[in-house]
Write a structure and sequence with these properties.
Blueprint (H helix, E strand, L loop, with lengths): L5 H15 L9 E11 L9 E4 L3 E6 L8 E4 L2 E2 L6 E4 L3 E14 L6 E12 L7 E10 L4 E8 L5 H23 L1
Antiparallel strand pairs: 1-2, 1-3, 1-10, 2-5, 3-4, 4-6, 6-7, 7-8, 8-9, 9-10
Helix pairs in contact: 1-2
């Protein structure tokens, strides 16, 4: 039976809306730290535009949803080319959307190249929700080894926002009821 009171209907409707958010998948969280060797199109990491990673790349540390991943396979990274699939593992893939950082710091012969980007992390098992993540890479001049890292970040869930709204409606109704007496 649906109550006749419009305020109770509103609270009931918002409650059902909030509960519907529970059915959505969780975002992917965690960090992966990779290391490995690579080659470049110029044999100089400072001026290179194409990086070829020698696969498989070793996972040095993993936490969160990435726990248990020991290696990943990288695609070539072209800093001038289109974005796309960058790496994959037994359970996740990361599609680079855009590069947001490409810097060189220090002085020769010890300059460090840092590249970073954002993209979408996907769960190949389709259990967890696609999640925006960040990817960074750094290597020292005259080195064929690099450190790469990935982290997945979460944003506030719709359920959290719905519950906040429901709480505000409840406070408003309580104040209205108190002022009526």
């Amino acid at each position: 039976m649906i109550p006749n009171n419009p305020y109770l209907r509103l609270v009931l409707g918002l409650s059902l809306l909030a509960l519907s958010g529970l059915a959505s998948a969780q975002k992917i969280t965690g960090t992966l730290i990779f290391s490995g060797s690579l080659t470049t199109d110029t044999n100089d990491v400072v001026t290179a535009t194409v990086f070829t990673f020698n696969n498989p790349v070793t996972v040095d540390a993993a936490n969160g949803d990435f726990t248990g991943i020991n290696s990943v396979t990288y695609q070539d990274l072209d800093t001038n080319g289109p974005a796309g699939l960058l790496w994959s593992s037994t359970r996740f893939t990361f599609e680079l959307t855009s590069l947001v950082q490409d810097t060189v710091t220090g002085t020769a012969p010890n300059r460090i190249r840092g590249i970073g980007g954002i993209g979408t992390l996907k769960d190949t098992d389709n259990i967890l929700e696609n999640t925006e993540g960040t990817w960074t890479f750094s290597t020292q001049e005259n080195s064929v080894n690099g450190k790469f890292s990935f982290s997945a970040s979460t944003v506030p869930e719709p359920l959290t926002v719905s519950l906040l709204g429901l709480g505000l409606v409840g406070v408003g109704l309580a104040r209205r009821a108190k002022s009526a007496y």
